[in-house]
Write a structure and sequence with these properties.
By secondary structure, the protein is α+β, with helices and mostly antiparallel strands. It folds into 3 domains: about 5-65, Arc Repressor Mutant, subunit A; about 85-125 and about 230-335, Beta-Lactamase (2-Layer Sandwich), CATH 3.30.450; about 130-225, Heat-inducible transcription repressor hrca homolog, domain 3 (Enolase-like, domain 1). It is built from 11 helices and 11 strands. It has helices at about 5-20, 25-35, 40-50, 70-75, 85-95, 105-120, 170-185, 195-205, 210-225, 245-260, 315-335; strands at about 55, 65, 120-125, 135-145, 145-155, 160-165, 230-235, 275, 280-285, 290-295, 305-310. A hairpin with a 5-residue loop joins β10 (about 290-295) and β11 (about 305-310). The protein starts with a helix and ends in a 7-residue tail after the last helix. The relative contact order is 0.13.
Amino acid sequence: MLTPRRVEIFKAIVDEFIKTAEPVGSKTLQKKYHLPYSSATIRNDMQVLEEMGYLEKTHTSSGRIPSTLGYKFYCENMLADSNVDEKMEVAIRHAFEAQNMNMEEAVQASCRILSEMTNMTTGAIGPDSSRQRLEHIKLFPIDERNAVCVFITNTGHTETKTFHFDADVPFTDIETCTDILNSRLKGTPITELADRMRDLKPDLTAVVKQHELLFTAFVKAFVRFASENVYFSGKDKMLYQPEFEDITKLKKLMTMLNDTSDWRRIGDQENAVAVTTKRGAELTWFNDVAVVRSTFKVNDDEQGQLMVVGPSRMDYDQIISMLQYAARMIEKMYNAGGKNE
């Protein structure tokens, strides 16, 4: 059974392993954490914790490391309600205040900042496009070779894409094409836009000179818009984590990071263990990987998620605090749902 002493020993082991990535023995616990128990008592309790499934013994040391079940117990019961480090808070806030960003840019900037601060891979999952319909398209020419396209959905969500053309496209072609798409595609589910575009190709061919360039640009943009809206930053950070010195593990993770289709259903991974903390963060562990997610509201009907992906050995307290602070900044910046100040 779990006694207060065993809980104290267990927490010290998790905290020490998070800091050092080295298996933890009884002497280390006595010296660094000043536990008022004999080495024999600590070793006996470590054995019991191992039998309960909270600790594991490595082949290279007599020390113990936390198991996935142990991390789950730790995150359910032992996380402090700590604030984000002041230096990190200032850096995140300054990044938002220093630039005039749209939602997509703000989310990606958050990922880059969090990746640098945590030294781990970070990501974002955007709103589920399968529930959205196209409301309006705005195309802003930069010059005859470049344009910025803004898609607006019925929920108020916007996506911005940049078009680069291989030949000059007259502004009149851009206006005509946009007018046709707005009149014929309004109300179309986002996931059906690419197919509907193919039906419209004869109409564009009849009235738009550079119809092929515009057709190709819009189809590609619609496909990207409808695909799983997942962004990652700092994938190379995994190379510096000792847990991924095993090239097989690293390749498997990199394959997952490059295949964005699975991240909305990350809890469905084989042998996945998941928990939602008292602070509202969602955690999932699988194959020595931990994913920490925090939700941000885009509007009353839609939400996205920021996430940190790394080894199970991570500073959950600080990472959850940073994720949730960045999510609140995104909501505050865009007054999500009209409820933020």
